[in-house]
UniProtKB/TrEMBL annotation:
Keywords (A to Z) from UniProt: Calcium, Disulfide bond, Heme, Hydrogen peroxide, Iron, Metal-binding, Oxidoreductase, Peroxidase, Secreted, Signal
Family: Belongs to the peroxidase family. Classical plant (class III) peroxidase subfamily.
Record's protein name: Peroxidase
Gene3D superfamilies: 1.10.520.10, Peroxidase, domain 2
Enzyme Commission number: 1.11.1.7
Binding sites annotated in the UniProt record for heme b: 194
Domain of life: Eukaryota
Origin species: Chenopodium quinoa
Active site: 69
InterPro entries according to UniProt: Haem_peroxidase, Haem_peroxidase_sf, Peroxidase_pln, Secretory_peroxidase
Annotated gene: LOC110709520
SS bond partners: 38-117, 71-76, 123-320, 201-233
Amino acid sequence: MARFHKHLNITLGIISWFLCFAISLSSALQVGFYTKSCPNAENIVRQVVQQQYKADRTVPAALLRMHFHDCFVRGCDASILIDSTSDNQAEKDAGANGSVRGYELIDKIKAALERACPQKVSCADIITLATRDAVYIAGGPNYNVPTGRRDGLISRASEVNLPGPRFTVLQAQQSFSARGLSLNDMVVLLGAGHTIGVAHCNFFKDRLSNFQGTGTPDRTMDKALVKKFSGLCGSNPNVNPSTFLDQNTSFVFDNEYYNQIRKNRGILQIDQELALDSLSAKLVSNLAANNNNFRQSFVKAIVKMGNIQQGNAGEIRENCRRINY
C-alpha cells in the first residue's frame, strides 16, 4: 500500500508539473509580442494580405481553413506549412489537407518579414495574424491577436485527424472537445469557416442522389439545391467542381450561413445537422438572429483556438516550408 501511495504521489506530481508547464507556456503569448523585436511586423502582414486580396477574394476562406487545420493537429505551430521530404510525408500532404491553399501567400509574408527583421517572427504567428487581417477585409471583426508562438519541428501526415464533412454533431463535438473547445466554439468556428468557404462536389455528392445508401437524395436538403447541384456536380467522377457553402453572401464574413442552414440550405451534411440536432439547434438559432453576437463569439473562439498547445518549444523558421538546419 505504501508503495502504491508513493507511485500515486509521483504520478500526481508529474501531472501537476505538466499542467503548470502547459499554463506557463500558454501565458507566453501576449498581444504586441513583437513591439520591440519587430515593431512593424503586424503592419507588414496586413499589407501583404491586402495586396493579395485585391487579386483573389477567396484569400480569407483559404487562411481560415489553413489556421483551423494547423491548430487541430499539433496546436498552432505552423506544422502544416512544412514540405514533405523523401523520408517523411508531412501534414500538408494528408488527404484531409488536399484542399488547403495559401502557402504561397505565407511565403510572401515571411519573405517581407525576413527583410525587415530576420528570424524574429514565427510562421505560426504569421498564419494567425494573416487570418485575422483577411477576416477583417471580408467584413469580419478586427481583434487583437496574442502572439509569441514558436514553429514546430515535427509534421506528419499520419497525425492528421480532423472532423469531417459527414460527421454527426456529436462526433464533431468530441473532436473539438479533445482540443479544449466547447460546443459553442465549434458552432461558431464551423460557421466562420463556412460563411465564406467552398466545398467540392465529392464532399456532398452523396446527398444529391444516394444519401447513406438509400438511393434517394437527403430529405433534409432543399429540393431546389438538390436540382442545382445535381447539374453542377454531374456524373463524371473525374470532374469535381466546387460551390460556396453560403449561397447568399458568399464573400462576406457574416452570420448568413446560419440563416441558410435553418432553411435546409446546408451544403455539407455537418452544416445541415448543426441546424437540426438538438445539441446545436438553439445555438444556430441565436447566431442566425444576431450578427453582432456571431462576431463577438467568433473573436472569443478564434483566439481560444489560437492558444491550443502553445509554448516556447520550437524555433523561428527562416523558411516556413522547412525546419532550420
